[in-house]
Write the structure tokens for this entry.
Amino acid sequence: MKKIFTFLTLGIIMSISTGIAKKDNTQIIANESFSNGAVKVDNTQIINGLKRITVTIPYLGMNGEKIEGQANFYCKPELLKSKNKIPVYCGVHYDSSQKTIKKYCDWGFAVVTPCFDKLPGKFIFGNSYNFNKAMIQWTRRLPFVDRTKMIFGGGSAGGYMTLAMGSEFFPVAALISDLPCVNWDYGCNYLLANQKSSGCLLPPDKPRPLPVLALIAPGVNLATAIFGNDLSSDVWYTLSPISYVNRISSPVMVTAATGDMLCTIDMFTPKKFFTLDKKLFPKDYVRDFKKLTSNPKASKTLVESIPEKKLSTHIIPLPKKIHQFTPGDKKMLDDTAYDLPPQKEIDRPWSKEKQWNLVILNEGAPLPYIGHNRYYWNTNPRSFVSHYKIQKPQVEQLNSAKLQRLLERYMDKLSDVAILATGKPANRLNYKKLEQLDVLAGLLDFARIGPEYAKRIENLYRISALKPFGKTLDFKKLKKLQSEINKISVK
């Protein structure tokens, strides 16, 4: 029976995809013709030696309303001329810096990233969430993209979005989340509690005791306007990556810094790295994790949310020669443009044996004027990216929680979504047929990798409570559904 299964599965899988683009890729990005959600090409340019294609992406907002946003696709022209499938780095939420874009293109990736200035609803868990989903879905529809070799990444709000998108899509090669907020119950209470101490409530001409925190603290008002004023409600836990680590099944590298004043180290680990010099801070400045976490469900750090067998923690000590930011340092918020002598690159440590890698930059205690980092670090996930650029996904990447999310997306009804202040669940789905196409593509891609991958899908589907494809899963049926949806979705 095993030999028969293997023969049949391999035949089906090979009919699904060869893994090779059949024609030159240079002209493949074009206007789509879906009835709903079709992406349009705005312009094509050569920027710093890279081909940049700007597109307009329709998507559905939190209330189901139709919205449009823009994204940029970057790639080396010679890579586009290849007939091989191309790996992609998706920089999420913010538009990736030119430094990051060049880095990943030099590493052999295409890059897709939002046009942040032209993105309606920029707020992190407002409509930006929905746009990033639509952007990634469009990228995964490009026929020359290797969907099993897509890496998501971003910093700060983009770091949070990286984890959020990692919980939605499948398969994903890897996630690189820098300095994210992983616990919004604590995060929102921290911002609200420090609005006065940061100085954000002062008149514009007055100096801020905690200047960078003062820029960020009003963000809690945007959050409560969407999801309500009760910071002890379940909504903030539901929004937090600590609540859905079981749906984040791909390899993950999360970077945190002990000196971070915005996404403090307290939400990542209970380990104490420093004693805060309270004399440097306003008397009413607070950061105690237990006191500021108001919902018992959320009273755990990232480390405490991840099974021990899946987590590896790596602490990078402070280099002997490194630049410390100063109070008047205007480049502190944009170190990508900082003009400093080259510093030796640190390849971030990680473990191949663990799914989750937490990398902690040990820069001592935070200072009042600091944003995310006290020092100008030069670290890179170079070896991590290099490994997962070629490594096929592990068969365990599909688990019951991930399959349930995929099936819910296919059925156009999600569980575990945040409730808006209006009392309605926030919409986190794109156009129905595009969601269905994406789910089918992910399952078929996974099955194509090998017989054990197809068997994994079948076994998990068999015990799933959701059965949108019938009692048992048939890959020929999935392929037929994919073709049928394509036909009826195109004008």
Summary: The longest helix spans residues 432-449. The radius of gyration is 23 Å. Confidence is low (pLDDT under 50) at residues 1-24.
